[in-house]
């Protein structure tokens, strides 16, 4: 059996990578946490005690037992073939990308020397960067794993990683990569685009400048604060499922536009309330 993980390399020490490092420490991880990121980010991560040391990609890949890729999606895809000549066979490489199919396909094609296990923590904030990292970011949140086969969850390193996920307070779920991408198109990507569309519609109009608005507008546009630097990669790697979700949403809006008299709208409000109560009960 492989020895326990003694070193973790975080590639991309931002909100997610930094939070994973802090969560590991809080959960009792006593090994070394290595940061691979820009010099500015590494400097700040060291100041905040998020990581122990910094390293180049090659240095980290050659030494780490667990490699945690938390860069933007397209950078993760670029990084995978760079790792293959460097990683140790007993290492585990995982990622935190918000879409999985493209990453899993690249990993299968290019990462041969060690195991890859796709992952997606369903957690985040509008703020970015290591300054926004927090140890409890994953607590109570789903953490999706996307193995190619069920057996990939049963290797010693994968079982240890799943155990750390539970220790940091997250709830593990296993999904096929394509099904994951279909589901999150509705539960994550569509909400983002709805908020973005609302804010873009109102931008430049006089109504928001009047000061006549309350929590409805601020709550509904919260996700519009999200950075396109992250969402551009999501849109690029999950276009089909996102277009399906948009089609269904637009169909509902068209139904609204067909007539908004109270008798027609009551059932829609009742359906919406059921869903809103349901997601709040499970979050």
Describe the structure.
By secondary structure, this protein is α/β, with parallel strands linked by helices. The chain has two domains: 7-175, Rossmann fold; 179-282, 6-phosphogluconate dehydrogenase C-terminal fold (Orthogonal Bundle), CATH 1.10.3660. It has helices at 15-26, 39-47, 57-63, 73-83, 101-110, 156-167, 177-202, 206-209, 215-220, 228-237, 239-257, 262-282; strands spanning 7-11, 32-36, 53-54, 66-69, 92-95, 115-121, 142-146, 171-174. The chain has an eight-stranded mixed sheet, sandwiched between helices. Strand 2, helix 2 (39-47) and strand 3 form a beta-alpha-beta unit. Helix 4 (73-83) packs parallel to helix 5 and helix 7 (177-202) packs across helix 11 (239-257). The longest helix has 26 residues, at 177-202.
Please write the string of helix (H) and strand (E) elements: EHEHEHEHEHEEHEHHHHHH
> Oligomerization state of this entry?
single chain
What's the rounded overall pLDDT mean? 95
Number of strands: 8
Widest beta sheet: strand line-up: 3-2-1-4-5-6-7-8
By CATH, the topology of the largest domain is Rossmann fold
- How is the main sheet built? 8 strands, mixed
Structural class: alpha/beta
Number of helix segments? 12
Apparent shape: globular
Q: Radius of gyration in whole Å, from Cα?
A: 21 Å
What is the CATH top level name of the largest domain? Alpha Beta
Number of domains: 2
Distance between the termini: 36 Å
User: Which range does the strand content fall in?
Assistant: 5-15%
Can you name the CATH architecture of the largest domain? Answer: 3-Layer(aba) Sandwich
